[in-house]
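PROTEIN DESIGN WORKSHEET
SECTION A - STRUCTURE
LENGTH: 429
TOKENS:
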């Protein structure tokens, strides 16, 4: 395909020119042969510096040592600042400290979103309030989280001091104490290394998690009440859950029982239907059996009526030809009794189904054919006996009931069956 490209594209596939041959360069300096062999450093030892003239080695500071040093320096600076502030701190001459110190209540750990009006509503329950001073940061203007509340009466301040400590305001439990800067000699605030006074547990070894005084029975009782209420709610919830589970189980049990009852009723209905069908089937079978038995008896009675037929003439005599073979006399095959029986049989057969009618017709045809064969054999025997001059009058082989009686037709070509009067052909000799 490249031969069909234009010349400017074929030039891109053209090989480059071969690299020109250049004579080898001289050997590199390290490849050249040195006349002076390699040697050690012994000739240069005199050029080294004397160890006695070298300065002593310096030890570098590690990271842990550097962090410890900075922390120690910070503590020292803070101590110097605290000492300086302690010399300048005088709560009695503080312009921000106003009002009566013995009527002023200190409230700490206040939520930053709590307003002065909310504090007033919460602490007015102990007595009338004269003034509330909330402390704000001078740089950012945000609240610092504590305030001073001055009551009009000292007893109200003591009531709030005893009962308001640990009260939850806007989701936080506040800490309540008296103003100790102007009432306790030598007391220092926390920022200057002090604490909340002797009635507070301020040390790390005796500090407690909840706010309160040495007398913590109120808070213990409150916690016990709170735990008791929580346990009661949990027990009530557990009882409700158990009641709901029992109710659901009872509903399921009733549902299952209803479904079982429905299934049992359905099965009982099916069993009753099956019993009814079986009873009808047995009754129909019994009726069919009785009907077949009656038909069999009627057929037997109809076959026995042929015994009253007129006796045939002597052997060799042909029957008279006065009329057709069917008109043999009142007691012959076409007599009144035989016709009545045929009508009854036809009437009964008309009520059967087509299949039973066909089956009965085939059965009658087979029975008639067999009887015809037996009658033809006996007729031949009689004819054979009459030709020999016997005196049996042609009645040999007949039974007492006359069911096997037959009559020869004209010319001896056939015989007439006594049951239905049909003309059957005789079997060839």
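SECTION B - SEQUENCE
RESIDUE ASSIGNMENT:
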């Amino acid at each position: 395909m490249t031969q069909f490209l234009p010349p400017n594209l074929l030039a891109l596939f053209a090989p480059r020119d071969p690299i020109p041959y250049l004579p080898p360069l001289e050997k590199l300096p390290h490849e050249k042969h040195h006349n002076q062999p390699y040697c050690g450093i012994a000739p240069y030892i005199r050029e080294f510096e004397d160890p006695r003239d070298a300065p002593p080695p310096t030890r570098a500071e590690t990271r842990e040592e550097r962090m410890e040093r900075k922390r120690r320096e910070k503590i020292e600076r803070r101590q110097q600042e605290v000492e300086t502030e302690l010399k300048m701190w005088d709560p009695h001459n503080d312009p921000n400290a106003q009002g009566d110190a013995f009527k002023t209540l200190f409230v700490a750990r206040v939520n930053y979103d709590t307003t002065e009006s909310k504090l007033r509503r919460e602490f007015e329950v102990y007595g009338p309030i004269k003034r509330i001073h909330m402390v704000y940061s001078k740089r950012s203007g945000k609240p610092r989280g504590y305030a001073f509340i001055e009551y009009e009466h000292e007893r109200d301040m003591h009531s709030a001091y005893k009962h308001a400590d640990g009260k939850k305001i806007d989701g936080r439990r506040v800490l309540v104490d008296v103003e100790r800067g102007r009432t306790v000699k030598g007391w220092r605030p926390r920022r200057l290394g002090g604490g909340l006074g002797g009635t507070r547990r301020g040390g790390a070894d005796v500090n407690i998690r909840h706010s309160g005084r040495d007398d913590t029975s109120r808070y213990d009782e409150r916690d016990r009440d709170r735990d008791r209420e929580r346990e009661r709610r949990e027990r009530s919830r557990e009882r409700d859950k158990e009641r709901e589970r029992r109710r659901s189980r009872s509903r399921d049990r009733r549902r299952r029982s209803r479904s079982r009852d429905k299934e049992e009723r359905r099965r009982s209905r099916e069993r009753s239907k099956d019993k009814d069908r079986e009873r009808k089937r047995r009754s129909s079978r019994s009726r069919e059996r009785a009907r077949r038995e009656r038909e069999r008896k009627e057929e037997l009675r109809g076959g026995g009526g042929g015994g009253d037929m007129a006796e045939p003439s002597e052997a060799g005599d042909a029957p008279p030809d006065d009329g057709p073979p069917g008109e043999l006399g009142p007691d012959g095959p076409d007599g009144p009794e035989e016709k009545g029986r045929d009508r009854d049989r036809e009437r009964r057969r008309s009520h059967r189904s087509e299949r039973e009618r066909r089956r009965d017709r085939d059965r009658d045809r087979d029975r008639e054919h067999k009887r015809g064969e037996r009658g033809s054999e006996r007729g031949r025997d009689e004819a054979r006996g009459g030709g020999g001059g016997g005196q049996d009058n042609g009645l040999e082989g007949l039974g007492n009931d006359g069911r096997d009686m037959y009559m020869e037709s004209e010319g001896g070509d056939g015989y007439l069956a006594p049951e239905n009067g049909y003309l059957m052909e005789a079997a060839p000799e």
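SECTION C - NOTES
The beta strands are 104-108, 129-136, 143-151, 168-169, 172-173, 175-178, 407-408, 414-416, 423-425.
Residues 305-312+328-425 form one domain.
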